[in-house]
């Protein structure tokens, strides 16, 4: 994952004219042979939104039809770049205007973590489906509020778990379910990179909800769950902090954590903002193993088992994700690995248990 932030910073540079496929955002029949198009408003036009927007140019069933930002200059720049008319560019204060807009099916929230619940609840109340980047919130309570609001409004709540649609990942899950690895005994997840600018929001306790765990450690948490195929029942954890100025109180630098599963399988994982070249999953069973390195980076993912390498071609993860979200929302498709609010809530509960284990030094049961 060492190149992850570098890539975000690169695509976040001042926007210039690029040969992207334009996509009009006027009221029309957004339907193709595969089914209706998912008309998406992007909310929060930061670094990751750049990556999603670029990826969506190659989507078959998802299109950018509106933009929502607190920065007027971004609305102008992005509107020109992606052919979104001024009538479909909104400030945060104008969010109410999306309510009766037929050109918006869903809103993809990509703000700092703190604001996910606020916007998700408001979007749901306006009758639009909610897509929240992970982590879905900064705590369990707010994650549950998001779920409840979407259920009450009768809209879907999806979380940006792009790896749940990645072909190599799904193939390993399929092999594990078929018993090719035998009884699963052990999982290792290493997730980390050296973070840059100390003033960025990811190092702000209030905005991020923590440090590396919220941003990168969540990949090992989530990966352990879908690789092992069980939900953990306990965690233990230890924190290491070498730079208390950069990583202030409540902002974790490095956490090693362990998880136990009902079958007896265990996981040993590491989340860090202080080490590069950490992007690896390893699954071990009585009959074989699976290894992924890189395991969650933007790609290409490299994977192998005890029987040899997997060779699925790389397709941009966010492109696949948005087309799959269209199928989930419009067709009622059930993904192999869930991407709903309940899935996000499970990760939030584990993160809170890890933080508790760091403070207490004791094993903490997952509630």
Characterize the structure shown:
With 367 residues, this protein is of the alpha/beta class. Helices cover 32% and strands 22% of the residues. A 9-stranded mixed beta sheet has the order 16-15-14-13-9-12-11-10-17. A 6-stranded parallel beta sheet has the order 5-4-3-6-7-8, sandwiched between helices. The chain has a two-stranded antiparallel sheet with strand order 1-2. Strand 3 (38-43), helix 2 and strand 4 form a beta-alpha-beta unit. The radius of gyration is 20 Å and the shape is globular.
Topology:
Layout: H1 4-11, E1 31-32, E2 35-36, E3 38-43, H2 47-56, E4 62-69, H3 72-81, E5 89-91, E6 106-109, H4 116-125, E7 129-132, H5 140-153, E8 157-159, H6 167-177, E9 184-192, H7 205-208, H8 212-228, E10 234-240, E11 254-260, E12 266-272, E13 278-285, E14 289-292, E15 303-305, E16 308-309, H9 317-331, H10 341-360, E17 364-365
Parallel strand pairs: 3-4, 3-6, 4-5, 6-7, 7-8, 9-12
Antiparallel strand pairs: 1-2, 9-13, 10-11, 10-17, 11-12, 13-14, 14-15, 15-16
Helix pairs in contact: 2-9, 4-5, 5-10
Number of helical stretches of at least 4 residues? 10
Helix content: 25-40%
- SSE arrangement, N to C: HEEEHEHEEHEHEHEHHEEEEEEEHHE
Question: Mind summarizing the main beta sheet?
Answer: 9 strands, mixed
Structural class: alpha/beta
Our estimate of the beta-strand percent is: 15-25%
Alpha carbon gyration radius: 20 Å
The low-confidence parts are: 5-27
Which word captures the global form?
globular
Strand order of the largest sheet: 16-15-14-13-9-12-11-10-17
Mean pLDDT: 93
């Amino acid at each position: 994952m060492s190149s992850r932030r570098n890539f975000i910073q690169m695509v976040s540079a001042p926007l210039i004219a690029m040969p992207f496929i334009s996509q009009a955002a006027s009221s029309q029949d957004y339907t193709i042979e595969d089914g209706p198009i998912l008309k998406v408003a992007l909310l929060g036009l930061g670094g990751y939104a750049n990556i999603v927007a670029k990826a969506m140019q190659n989507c078959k069933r998802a299109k950018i039809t509106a933009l929502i930002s607190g920065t007027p200059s971004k609305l102008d720049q992005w509107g020109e770049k992606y052919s979104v008319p001024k009538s479909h560019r909104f400030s945060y204060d104008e969010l109410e205007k999306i309510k009766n807009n037929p050109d918006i099916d869903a809103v993809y929230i990509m703000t700092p973590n703190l604001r996910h619940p606020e916007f998700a609840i408001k979007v749901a109340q306006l009758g639009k489906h909610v897509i929240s980047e992970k982590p879905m919130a900064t705590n369990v309570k707010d994650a549950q509020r998001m779920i409840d609001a979407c259920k009450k409004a009768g809209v879907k709540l999806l979380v940006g778990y792009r790896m749940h649609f990645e072909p190599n990942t799904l193939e390993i899950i399929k092999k594990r379910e078929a018993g090719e690895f035998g009884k699963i005994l052990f999982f290792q997840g290493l997730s980390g990179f050296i973070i840059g600018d100390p003033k960025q929001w990811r190092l702000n306790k209030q905005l991020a909800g923590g440090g590396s765990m919220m941003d990168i450690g969540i990949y090992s948490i989530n990966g352990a769950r879908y690789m092992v195929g069980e939900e953990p029942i306990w965690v233990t954890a230890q924190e290491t902090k070498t730079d208390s100025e950069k990583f202030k109180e409540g902002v974790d630098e490095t956490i090693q954590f362990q998880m136990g599963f009902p079958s007896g399988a265990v996981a040993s994982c590491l989340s860090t903002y202080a080490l590069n070249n950490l992007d690896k999953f390893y699954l071990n069973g009585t009959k074989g193993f699976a290894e992924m390195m890189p395991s969650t980076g933007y790609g290409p993912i490299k994977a192998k088992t005890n029987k040899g390498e997997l060779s699925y071609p790389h397709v941009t993860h966010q492109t696949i994700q948005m087309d799959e979200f269209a199928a989930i929302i419009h067709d009622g498709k059930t993904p192999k690995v869930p991407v709903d609010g309940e899935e996000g809530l499970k990760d939030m509960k584990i993160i809170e248990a890890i933080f508790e284990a760091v403070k207490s030094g004791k094993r903490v049961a997952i509630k």
